[in-house]
Every structure is written in C-alpha cells, then in structure tokens.
Amino acid sequence: MMKVVHLSTTVGVNYRLHCALHKQGIDTCILVSGEGSSGGEIIYAGQDRRQKFEKKTIGRILDILLRRWYKLSGKMPFSHGILGTDVSAHPVIRDADVIHLHWICYFQSIETIKKLIALGKPIVWTCHDSWPFTGGCHVRLGCENFTGNCGKCPILHSKGKRDLSWHILKKKKKAWRGNQIYFIAPSRWMQENISKSALFSGNTCRVIANPIDTEIFRPLDYTETESRTGYKKDDEKLHLLFGAHAVDIPYKGLSCLLKALEKLWEEQPELAGQVVLHMIGGSQSEDLILQKYECHHWGFVDDVHKMAAIYNIADIYVLPSLDDNLPTMIMESLSCETPVVAFHTGGITDMLEHKRNGYVAAYGDAKELEEGIIWVHQNNRDNILGKYGRETVKEKYDSDKIARQHIAFYEEVIQASAERN
C-alpha cells in the first residue's frame, strides 16, 4: 500500500485530500506543526526547547523587525523561511513513499526542506500560493520579479535591487534549485507562474485542483438551512455573501466591494434597499456605506455543515479578491448552487464561467462588480446559474476524481525517482 505523508503548518483544507486519498486505499497521514495528542491520521511534529524559543522569541523579533524596517502591513503575508522544525528523522517521514508539502511556512524552513530533499524520497509540493517560488511574498498582486532574482519588492515597499526578497530567493535557489521537487498547481494560472519562475521553471508540474465533498456542500431546503444556522431567510431580500479570514486583508478586495455597494446605492436605490450583506471572517469594516445596508456578521465559521447552510442562504457570493489561486469558497458556493461574482484574476476562471455560473468582472473594476451583481440578480430565473455551477463542480472537482488524479501523479513521481536513483 502506498504511504503518503502530508506536511502542513495546520490541518486546514488538506484534510479533505487526506480523506479522499484514504477512501481510495492510500495509507495517508498529516504531519503538522506544534504539539498535541497525535493519533492516527493527524500527527504533531513536536518541538524541543530550542525550537520553541526560536519560534516564539526569535521568530517574533524577526517578524517585528521585518515589518518595521520595510513598513510592511501586518495584513499582507510575507514569510522569511528562516526558522523551521527538522522532521527529516521523523518515523512517518522515513516510512513514507511520498512526502507531500502544502502550506508549510512557520513549520518548515528553507533549510529543513533541504534536509527533506536530501532523503532522496519523491517530494510533491502543492502551491496553494506563490511563496515556494518567490522571495518571501505569498500574494504578488501582479509582480513578476520572481521570474528573475526578486528585489525591488512592491510588497516590502522596497526600491533596492538587493533587498530582503532578493536574499531570500537567492537562499532558496542555493538550497532547492536543481533538485527534483514535483509540483501540483491547483489552477492553470499557478502552473504558468511555476513554469516561468526562476526557481522551478524546469520542474515537473501538474494541474490538479483541490477536492470538495459535494455531499456536504450541496443545496439544502429552508428547514435544514434554518436549523443549522438559526437564521430565517427573507426571500423578499437579496442576500449577498462576502468572506475572508480577515475581511480587511487588502488583497481580498473589500474596498472594491464597498465601492460597488456605494454605486448600487446611488444608481439602484430600490434594489440596494433589498440587500442583506452577509460577512464571514474576523474583524469588521466600519465603512459608512455599510451603515446604509442590512448586515449580518457570522464571524469565523469552522463547521463545514454550517458553512454549507450559509452558502444556501446567499443568493450571490461576491469575491472581489485581487489575487487568488483556486479559491475554495467559490468551489463551495457553486457546489451549493449559489452563483458567484468575482474579478478576472488568478485561477478564478478555472471555475467561474462568465454568465453561465456567475459573472466575471474586469480586474479591480468596482463598477463592473456592481453590474455583475445586478446581472446575476436579473438573469438567474429558477436558479439556472447555480444549478449549472453545481454540475461543473461535480464534473471537475469531486473528491474521488481529484484523489485518483493525485494517486496517478504519485505513482509517476515514485517511478521517476526510482529511475533517477
């Protein structure tokens, strides 16, 4: 039986892939950062005193100095990759046929990944964002410096050619370039980025999406929706949904949504008066335009069944993100038969078909975002857009299908690794 170990800072959405692979007969587990009760499928790597000190003290100091020196916003993710936990001798690593990396920042470092490479085992890395091939940023907002040496990093507000991003990418090149890491890109956009990166342009990369359980994320009747959320939907209103880990993260585009809502209030006051804005995630915006709308704040939602019910409450899910790979929330929304309005960016168009399961607005254009909301509202008779959306998700992203694609890739890299060694 094939043994696969997933490395991830937290369990997160990787658990879905783990479950899908297990269902297909793969011996799989997830090795995560920190300490806890390790049992079976979720294993905590643990930390000795030195590692705890480095992470809690040195790591915190480095982050503070980084953000003060470069005036880096606390809401924009940037990881130096200096500190990590060496797991190269861990039993599940030694026993694995494939080591599968996911989002590993603050768990693995540039040097600890180098130690994993030295084991000679096949390493697969899913690029959930751009960090693996950049000089530290996770979200590039159109920056192409990763195709060379980085430097002059716009995320760091730097004009220097040899800034921190230049040094980090140089260190990654020294540790990783030329080594046979195999990549998975959840979207075609991410595959294009990997193929033109200075670090991994010669590495094998396959497009394999993240899986979704379409039995959890599915259309629900009103009774089930209300019982899961305690919220009674008013069908006379237009329910819009927006969500992010923290709603005020700049690249998640709340400012664009607020501009669109302002335009809607000015140009379509009758429709605007029917809108209920549902917001998922931490923190809240105090923007004046929101005081004109009925808003419902759900906070963090970690119960997938409740999350599915919230998608069912929504008439339209609006994602004004300015940089995104293959947003899980779009997939989940469509699987629940809720159409989506989003910008043309990243891998969004892998899932979203313009005027078929939602509306693809021009990048960063708040006016088009408003027009998309209006268009979907006016053209979704009998929820034709939502129903088509679920069909496409079941066809492309069903967990069994995605698991089989991963298994085929694992088999390929195991064979390639054996031939190379």
Structure description:
This protein is an alpha/beta fold. It has 2 domains: 3-211 and 399-420, Rossmann fold, CATH 3.40.50.2000; 222-397, Rossmann fold (3-Layer(aba) Sandwich), CATH 3.40.50. It has helices at 14-23, 49-70, 91-95, 110-117, 164-176, 188-196, 222-229, 254-267, 269-272, 304-313, 328-335, 348-351, 366-378, 384-397, 399-420; strands at 3-8, 27-32, 42-44, 98-101, 123-126, 181-185, 205-207, 238-246, 275-282, 294-299, 316-319, 340-343, 358-361. Strand 6 (181-185), helix 6 (188-196) and strand 7 (205-207) form a beta-alpha-beta unit.
Elements, N to C (H/E): EHEEHHEHEHEHEHEHHEEHEHEHEHHH
Oligomerization state: single chain
What is the CATH superfamily of the largest domain? Glycogen Phosphorylase B
Instruction: Provide the CATH topology of the largest domain.
Output: Rossmann fold
Q: Mean pLDDT, as a whole number?
A: 91
Question: Helix- and strand-based class?
Answer: alpha/beta
Widest sheet, order of strands: 3-2-1-4-5-6-7
Strand coverage percent: 15-25%
What is the total domain count? 2
For the sheet with most strands, the description reads: 7 strands, parallel
Main attributes of the structure:
421 residues, alpha/beta, Rossmann fold, 7-stranded parallel sheet, 6-stranded parallel sheet, 16% strand
Summary, kept brief:
The chain is of the alpha/beta class. The chain is 39% helix and 16% strand. Helix 12 links the parallel strand 12 and strand 13 (358-361).
